[in-house]
Amino acid sequence: MAxxxxxxxxxxxxxxxxxxxxxxxxxxxxxVASLRRLQKNTTATGIVQHLxxxxxxxxxxxxxxxxxLMFAEEDRTLxxxxxxxxxxxxxxxxxxxxxxxxxxxxxxxxxxxTTVDVRSDRRWPELPELLHPEVRAVAGVPIRLGGVPVGxxxxxxxxxxxxxxxxxxxxxxxxxxxxxxxxxxxxxxxxAVLADQLQYALDYRxxxxxxxxxxxxxxxxxxxxxxxxxxxxxxxxxxRVSDLAAELLGEQGPHDVANPDHxx
Amino acid sequence: MAQAPVVLExxxxxxxxxxxxxxxxxxxLDGQDRLRAVGASDDVGIALxxxxxxxxxxxxxxxxxxxxxxxxxxxxxxxxxxxxxxxxHAMPVRAVMSxxxxxxxxxxxxxxxxxxxxxxxxxxxxxxxSCLGELMxxxxxxxxxxxTDSSPSGQV
Lengths: 264, 156
Description:
The complex is a heterodimer.
Chain A (H helix, E strand, L loop, with lengths): L27 H14 L5 H16 L3 E7 L5 E6 L2 H13 L3 H8 L3 E3 L21 E9 L2 E10 L7 H55 L3 H14 L4 H9 L15
Antiparallel strand pairs in A: 1-2, 1-5, 3-4, 4-5
Helix pairs in contact in A: 2-5, 5-6, 5-7, 6-7
Chain B lengths: L3 H16 L3 E7 L5 E6 L2 H13 L3 H8 L3 E3 L11 H4 L7 E9 L2 E10 L7 H24 L10
Antiparallel strand pairs in B: 1-2, 1-5, 3-4, 4-5
Helix pairs in contact in B: 1-5
InterPro entries (chain B): GAF, GAF-like_dom_sf
Protein name (chain B): GAF domain-containing protein
Organism (chain B): Planotetraspora mira
């Protein structure tokens, strides 16, 4: 780069091409200008919804059958926060109920845990009967805050699969990005508020699951269709999924929630 | 927020690792709708973004103008396949993928991935780049929502 021709900016000053900004390669002044612009033009949605979107993106990047997030409560019990589909929810539920499984082990051991086929893995004998039959190969990596595991990122395949080192490394890299998102949230909201938001999500999963069951029975939907419809209507009406689910269970919910394609 | 630059650099490094490329760099629109070099995972990325900002041309600029992903196999190739006038200021960079960052329907910036060796970006790479662009939008939204300073001091 030393041999590159001199370039000048609009003010005539020479542009330096190997500049640094203190401890990082980020220009804080340019960053704050752009964030201020973004802040003006968007409505705050909260960390939990951001995490849901992140997991949906991980699902598409890796091309696995599904992905999910589990977070720990204060007593270090791992609970399910989000999964991309019904099968993934069964994986997270089964582990939350039995206290065993690859993601629980990843959290407890603060290391990646993989299984070629969780249905025949002798480490977790209680899992198979609670799992969706299409959950087979599973990989979980810890999500850390301040070096301490606080949850896990999980992916699964619907057939037995030998996980390669590159698979696991990519998952760690993605978990690292999630950690950065959590760090950014904590900076603004304080740890207690972030914990409250996550706790709220963990608590209200029960309500959401009941609402999904209600919709499945009433409208002959799959769990995925019911959840997609619930989430879409919540988004369209700018409400939390949990609030809408609670309303639905009180038999006050709008009828069109059963139709995932119907914008209300 | 004091940690925003650190978070963003960590994310850029992590995305480059995920993608299996040599680096990632970011240009964002500022309050005057100007595309500005914000940062990168390394010095080479800063050179790439600074050159594009100063020259007013390059794959990121083209991506912003078209509102579409731009994949360049060799930045040093003659126009229209490359941007040699930009490459002259970012010599180590060969292959570049520029992903438009869209929040809702609005362009907010461009995310560049680059490699020191020329390469063809296959459809799978294009899909991965697009997904990472979506991820960057989420990260930027979190950072924007996390901003606690409202003063125009420039402190993040």
